[in-house]
Design goal:
It is built from 12 helices and 11 strands. It is globular and about 85 Å long. The strands form 3 sheets. It has a 7-stranded mixed β-sheet. A two-stranded antiparallel ribbon has the order 5-11. Helix content is 45%, strand content 14%. It folds into 2 domains: 46-288, Spore Coat Polysaccharide Biosynthesis Protein SpsA, Chain A; 292-319. By secondary structure, the protein is an alpha/beta fold. The N and C termini lie far apart (47 Å). The chain crosses the membrane at residues 12-33. This is Mannosyl phosphorylinositol ceramide synthase SUR1. InterPro entries: Glycosyltransferase_domain (IPR051706), GlycoTrfase_DXD_sugar-bd_CS (IPR007577), Nucleotide-diphossugar_trans (IPR029044). It is found in: Membrane. Its main location: membrane.
Length: 319
């Protein structure tokens, strides 16, 4: 016995299927648009882009002190992370010579700052003591660099201060930076960076970063994508853009307080040609988290517009 479907019911089913397919397509386009904007394809990153020279010149002229806050808002705390992946139980900390020199440059130029070097043990203890709800995720990250990424967000949420990767040194005092409630760095192309990031404790940006980690902890198969999108630069950029979407008239939706402002991303120009000079920081050798797919994505990031041209040309010449 077969069930007869009336023409009216068939039309309703077809209409429903079309509506579902259109909804899925629109959702895919929205997600693709948001993902593309992590790399600045369709619009520049939200917030206010400042060069390092602009910040130092404004500080020396007294403009930073007068135009942003009467007093610094970032605590004078310098955070760095060193997790000994080959011998995690060894309490002796031995850094590569260039990293040690970079570290000393920051300490000597900021002698009145508190200095925190987060080891594998102190990082885990801190998460266990202060954010026990996150400990299981922290322990079960697939790649050790993910733990290095996330400890900076929790440390800044709790203590505030400025986090600096060990392969970055200092060329000037960081005092002019302390007037910005929260900031990160920007290489001038692609996503924002998390190699140097800072702000005041309890800032909504750091809550967004830490409270979103579990939901964003997906297995994206490729190591570079897993690291970048669950805890690294892509993730930071997504949360940065989310903060600015939630920001309206000095409030951030879902967070207490008023007077919140667009955030500053500070240029650490790595574009080819004649990049804007570094003033506050220097760059040493890095790549401690590179995996087998890192060169592919590095090449893609450097030639993204060429790849887009190839794709467009391919569609134009397709039969």
């Amino acid at each position: 016995m077969s069930l007869a479907i009336s023409p009216r019911a068939r039309r309703a089913i077809k209409t429903l299927i079309i509506i579902i397919l259109i909804s899925l397509l629109l959702d895919f386009i929205r997600r693709l648009y948001n993902f593309s904007n992590l790399f600045g394809f369709f619009k520049p990153h939200s917030g206010i882009l400042l060069t390092q020279r602009d910040i130092l010149d404004a500080y020396n002229a007294g403009q930073v002190q007068n135009d942003t806050n009467v007093a610094p808002v970032i605590p004078r705390i310098l955070h760095q992370v060193f997790h000994n992946w080959t011998d995690p139980d060894n309490p002796v900390i031995t850094l590569p010579d260039d990293w040690e020199a970079a570290r000393q440059s920051c300490m000597s130029l900021n002698p009145d700052w508190e200095y925190k070097l987060w080891t594998a043990k102190t990082s885990r203890d801190f998460i266990e003591d202060e954010f026990s709800w996150f400990l299981s995720t922290y322990d079960n990250y697939k790649f050790p660099i993910q733990r290095v990424d996330v400890i900076r967000y929790f440390a800044l949420r709790h203590f505030g201060g400025i986090y600096i990767d060990l392969d970055n040194g200092c060329k000037e005092s960081l005092e002019p930076i302390t007037y910005f409630p929260a900031f990160t760095t920007d290489g001038g192309h692609g996503t924002l960076s998390n190699n140097i990031i800072g702000g005041q404790p309890g800032h909504p940006l750091f809550y967004l970063l830490t409270e979103s980690l579990i939901a964003w902890n997906w297995n994206w198969i490729l190591p570079y994508v897993i690291i970048s999108y669950t805890s690294g630069q892509w993730f930071v950029t997504a949360m940065w853009e989310r903060y600015h979407r939630l920001l309206s008239d000095g409030t951030v939706k879902g967070f207490d307080g008023v007077g919140w402002k667009p955030l500053n991303h500070i240029l650490m120009d790595t574009r080819p040609g004649e990049p804007d000079p570094f003033v506050f920081w220097s760059q040493e050798h890095g790549g401690s988290w590179d995996n087998w797919d890192s060169p592919w994505f590095g090449w893609l990031g450097s030639h993204i517009y060429l790849v887009i041209e190839w794709v467009i040309l391919g569609f134009q010449t397709a039969p």
